[in-house]
Amino acid sequence: MLSPVNPVVEPPEQQDPARLPGPVRGRHDREIIALALPAFGALVAEPLFVMVDSAVVGHLGTAELAGLGVSAALLTTAVNIFVFLAYATTSAVARRVGAGDLPAALRQGVDGVWLALLIGAAVIAGVLPAAPALVDFFGASGTAAPYATTYLRISSLGIPAMLVVLAATGVLRGLQDTRTPLYVAVGGFTANATLNAALVYGAGLGIAGSAWGTVITQNGMAAVYLTVVVRGIRRQTRQAPGRDSAGWWAVLRPDAAGIRAGARAGTPLLVRTVTLRAVLMIATAVAARLGDSQIAAHQITLTVWSLLAFALDAIAIAGQAVIGRSLGAGDTEGARAACRRMIEWGAACGVVLGLLVLAARPLVGPLYTADPAVRHALMAALLVVAAAQPVCGVVFVLDGVLMGAGDGPYLAWSMLVTLAVFAPAAFAVPALDWGLTALWWAMALMMVTRLAALWLRARSGRWIVVGAVR
Fold first, then answer.
1. Which is nearest to 181 in space by CA: 41, 317, 325?
2. What does the pLDDT look like over 335-390, one tens digit per residue?
3. How many Å apart are CA 189 and CA 221, to the nearest integer?
4. How far apart are CA 106 and CA 108, in angstroms?
5. pLDDT single digits (tens) 249-289
6. Are 260 and 402 found together in one domain?
7. Is 247 within the bounds of a domain?
8. 3-state secondary structure of 290
9. How many domains does the chain have?
10. How many angstroms separate the Cα of 309 from the Cα of each of 72, 99, 146, 284, 394?
11. Is residue 5 a part of any domain in this protein?
């Protein structure tokens, strides 16, 4: 079940002709569905960790829950800005797979895992001594700060494991395997819920028990991923001509050149991610200036926006894997065809999600709040969210296509341009005494700007660079 080698990654000359796909369009549809659905499940499972922690800790008291809120935001930021470990690894591994060099693909994945461990160690070294200052900077109250500091310090011990999970997830996605990450995510969610309840209440450890339960779960997930990757390396080493089956461990040793190459490839994606986080932080800061009801409605709207993003990101992940493999195999026409088909999928899914938001709009407000002012602001903002979904669908897909092509520098520059367009529009909202709806139109403008930049790049064809290495 946890095999890192999906049958779809076999080189063309090794495939059974009876199993070769029919029409290209149908092949791409099957690949997109097979990769996107499990990826969506894994993406949704991850945020449930925080929900479980919040539900368990919430019964301890308001101060504990407030402390968890601050520390969870810090931890989420610390992990998410390094999501390039998954994205860059997916592209690099998929290219090697497309070129028919599975051992090199696994070697590339090992380099990504070592880079994750190095970054994780550096983050721990920074977070442990700075935890009180970080909690204070994020505005935790005097009663919540001790709980936030405790949770942050303990949970930071799980950061290397979570970064390894990101890198190993990228390896499996590059191998066209999104099912294993789904299984691990579901197992991790179940273990996290059980451990949290047992340590917080059964062992009486309070908020520290919640943190330890999450750390244990994260390390367990990392161990499963590493087992899967090592098993794949051992199998490929045994099958390689002229290889010593006992020498598989040599592939696991850190390779300084490979780690540096991974860091260089990931740096532009890091810039892209940090810039995107800056957009979200600016939006929240502006909403806070509009008043309590507006910021409350903004937070709910952002929650809906994030849930929709998980669905669209699943298609983008499929795009990364398919495009990387096609370019690695030198199949430029296949890459172009896959890009066109995924744009169609992204637009269609965006339309469907927009219609779902319109239909569910009257139900969202009562689910979160009884405040009439918040509900009124929320209804208008959700209209903008619904209208923007078709644009979002294409943006996410093109983002995945360019990531799969290893076009990180362009993605970084395009996000910097997007930030330059969005920031003045967002800051004009409180200056001109506009409301939350105007802020979300600025968010829609941000997505249209991204669409224009990504569309131009896709049309130019400059992202199409074939070979096992870009």
1. 41
2. 999 999 999 999 999 999 999 999 999 888 787 777 788 888 889 999 999 999 99
3. 10
4. 5
5. 667 787 888 888 888 888 999 999 999 989 988 888 888 78
6. yes
7. yes
8. coil
9. 2
10. 20, 31, 34, 17, 12
11. no
**Which residue, of 254, 272, 294, is where some domain finishes?**
254
Q: Are residues 420 and 435 in the same domain?
A: yes
pLDDT digits (tens, 9 = 90+) for 307-322: 888 888 888 888 888 9
C-alpha distance from residue 63 to each of 49, 60, 239, 337, 363 (Å):
20, 8, 57, 54, 30
332 vs 22, 321, 394, 405, 455, CA distance in Å? 19, 15, 21, 11, 18
Q: Which residue has 């992990």 as its token pair? A: 79
Hey, what are 332's tokens? 């430029």
- Average pLDDT of the residues in 45-66: 75
Coil, strand or helix at 398? helix
Q: Do 229 and 346 have their domain in common?
A: no
Question: In terms of domains, do 271 and 161 share one?
Answer: no
User: Residue 46 has which token pair?
Assistant: 């991850």
- Which of 196, 229, 254 is where one domain is finished? 254
| pTM (two decimals) | 0.80
Structure tokens, 7: 């049958």
Residues 370 and 337 placed together within one structural domain of the fold: yes
DSSP per-residue codes, 66-108:
HHHHHHHHHHHHHHHTTTHHHHHHHHHHHHHHHTT-HHHHHHH
161: closest CA among 226, 72, 234, 228?
226
Domain that holds residue 277: 256-464
